[in-house]
Structures are given as C-alpha cells and as structure tokens.
Amino acid sequence: MYENIKYEVKEGIGYLTINRPKALNALNTEVLAELQQALGEIEADEAVKAVIVTGEGRSFVAGADIAQMSKLNAVEGRAMMAAGHKVMDTIEQMPKPFIAAVNGFALGGGCELAMACDIRIASEKALFGQPEVGLGIIPGFDGTQRLPRLVGKGMAKYLIYSAQNIKADEALRIGLVEKVVAPEELMPEAEKLAKTIASKAPIAVAQAKIAINNGYDMDSKSASQFEVEATTVCFGSEDQKEGMAAFLEKRAPEFKNR
Length: 258
What we know:
Layout: E1 5-10, E2 13-18, H1 29-44, E3 50-55, E4 59-61, H2 66-69, H3 74-93, E5 98-102, E6 105-107, H4 109-116, E7 119-123, E8 127-129, H5 143-151, H6 153-162, E9 166-167, H7 168-174, E10 179-181, H8 186-198, H9 202-215, H10 220-235, H11 238-248
Helix pairs in contact: 1-3, 3-4, 4-5, 5-6, 9-10
C-alpha cells in the first residue's frame, strides 16, 4: 500500500516507520503524502491507542530531500513546506499520543518530525540538528516555532543560526528529548512506554494532550478554564466511571474509550 513508509498495528500500538533507508529516510513530497494518508488511518482507528514513529535502518530522518528541494521554485517550495506543516500539525493536534523513537540522524525535517511528537526517546547514536541556514533556507516544517518552545529561545537561535548538530546526551540536557537509551533498548523502551500509555483511559489521555497543547500559549486564567472543560469531558465518560470503580474495587480497569 505504501512505498516510502511502513505502517502496522500490534496490540493497540501503531508503528509508523519512514522507509527510505538508501536516502537516510529523507522526506520528499511522496513521503509526506503517504504520512498524511497513514495519519488519516490512525485517526480513524479506535483500536490504536498510541503511535511510535521511527526510521528504517541507521537514520530516523536525515532531513527533507535536498535533491528534490534544489529544483523547486518559490511557489513549489511553499507547497512542499505547506505539506510538511500539515503532517507535523496533524501529529501534534491528533488526540492520540505519538512517541518518536529516534534511532539515528534527526536533522532538519527529521528533527521537526520528532518535535511534532509528544515524547522523544533517543538512541545514544542519535544526532539532532537544524542545518537549513547552511543550505540557504530556514527550518520550514515549524522548526522555528517548536524548537524554542522545547529548548528556549536562546538555545533555539544558537542551534538554528549555527546549524550545529548535537548528540543525544546534549539533546537530553537541553530538553529536546525526554530519555536516552542504548541502541538495542530503543524500541523496547518506546514500546514499554506506548503500552503503559495505552493501558490508561484513552479519553483522559486525549483530553490531557488537548489541554496541554491548547493551554500552553494561553494566558494562565484561560488555560485553567480550558483544563476545567477538558476535565468535564472526562467526567462525562464511561471510562471515568470504570477507572474510579476499578480503583475502589482494587482491580484492573477495562477502558472502552467512551
């Protein structure tokens, strides 16, 4: 079905893999289109409780496809950036949680893809960076916006202006990733976290993501009120009744996402 990505579901976990290892999984227009299609599948599938995003081979995503971008004029470049924005925004805004399992190069569009996910776990071999200014452009898949929100404005400017790459331990230190593990532990760690999240009430996880994302840029009063409304949605669900009943009855809950 897909030529440039792989997508499968196992035990409620979606596995979304960029599959262009010969090109270090670089993002071209075809990859972006397939990612958008797969995201539509994920959104529509209630069985998927969490998603792991990774890359095939030794790279997560080495960036956008320079060979393709070098031939684009301003109008075509704008269209490609819009397609990239749509993919990243869909990941960020979808209520389901996304975990980036960063196994190698996460440069340019790859770093931006990881940042669009909710949580980033990196291999010790991972390498992060926004090299765009060395190519005559700037990060165009929302890197100039997400990076400052994760690491602070000054550090984001340092990384973007200098186009320097950083290793996983430095990415952890500045808050770009949440955890660093040995290469052989990367997918097991991502799966463990995905399964832990999937075991919780899906409505509650979704509302938590919505509240965090929407409240982040609000003033504190508006954000607090937004949280009240998100919590109210949870109280109107069967999952809330089941979760609290299970706690009182000292048993495991059986959530149904209703």
